[in-house]
Automatic annotation (TrEMBL):
Cross-referenced Gene3D superfamilies: Phosphatidylinositol (PI) phosphodiesterase
Location of the GP-PDE domain: 1-225
The organism of origin for this protein: Flavobacterium hungaricum
Protein name: Glycerophosphodiester phosphodiesterase
InterPro entries with a match to the protein in the record: GP_PDE_dom, PLC-like_Pdiesterase_TIM-brl
A Pfam family matched in the record: GDPD
SUPFAM superfamilies, alphabetized: PLC-like phosphodiesterases
């Protein structure tokens, strides 16, 4: 049962910061999950929301700022917003990285960066899995490089997600855990996909989802898994 730290170990450090990812490594997570957007000058920015309002001392949409401008805003008065390269360098192959594309406009840059780390820094395809609720973004990833592992995010119909996953030869289904039971987990696995539900935080829910024999759990508290 893989432990995947949601937005880093979000229960312990500000989400999607280098500190949250370091905490996830300290907790021996098997993987980290993070969210990405593009800056106006084309850098891949790690943050959940489309704006910096919730997390920083600034306001406005990420895609209207340059990287240098984004670096001037602070999270909890001390942390800078990380780029995806910075997270890759911190993790340094110690666990796998689940990159969630929040918009289709990030597909090309993320695929290029993954290819760069594989060709130049001895990373492996197993170190990455790209997920998105925007399935057109996943189709583009598959078209750009079919070797990249893909997780199909869904909070609705599992059968539709399964059919789509088959069409793009995805590696995993990433469902809202409330959709799951023992039978449908088995059905997904029999079709050859891993099941990585999100975001499972309470002890009770973790035990319930473990009972379904999923392959991994995305949690703010990876240590509880
Ligand atoms: O990738 C699973 C989960 O992170 C999806 O929801 O809103 O936390 O990005 P959200
Ligand atoms: Ca996410």
């Amino acid at each position: 049962m893989l432990k995947i730290a949601h937005r880093g170990a979000k229960a312990y450090e500000p989400e999607n910061t280098l500190q949250a990812f370091q905490k996830a490594l300290d907790l021996n997570s098997d993987g980290i999950e993070l969210d990405v957007h593009l800056s106006v000058d084309g850098h891949i920015i790690v943050m959940h929301d489309e704006t910096i309002d919730k997390m920083t001392n600034g306001t406005g949409e990420i895609n209207t700022y340059t990287l240098a401008e984004l670096k001037s805003f602070l999270i909890t008065e001390k942390h800078q917003i990380p780029t995806l390269n910075e997270v890759f360098d911190l993790v340094d192959k110690k666990c796998f990285i689940n990159v969630e594309l929040k918009n289709a406009d990030t597909s090309k840059q993320v695929v290029s960066l993954i290819e760069e780390y594989i060709s130049q820094k001895e990373w492996d395809y197993q170190h990455f899995i790209i997920s998105s609720f925007d399935w057109s973004a996943l189709e583009e990833v598959h078209h750009l490089n079919p070797k990249i592992l893909i997780g199909v995010l869904t909070e609705e119909d599992l059968d539709t997600a399964l059919a789509f996953a088959e069409s793009i030869k995805a590696k995993a289904i990433h469902p809202d855990y409330n959709l799951l039971n023992s039978e449908n987990v088995q059905k997904i696995q029999e079709k050859g996909f891993l099941v990585f539900p999100w975001t499972v935080n309470s002890d009770e829910d973790i035990q319930k989802v473990k009972g379904y024999k999923v392959d991994g759990i995305i949690s703010d508290n990876p240590d509880k898994i």
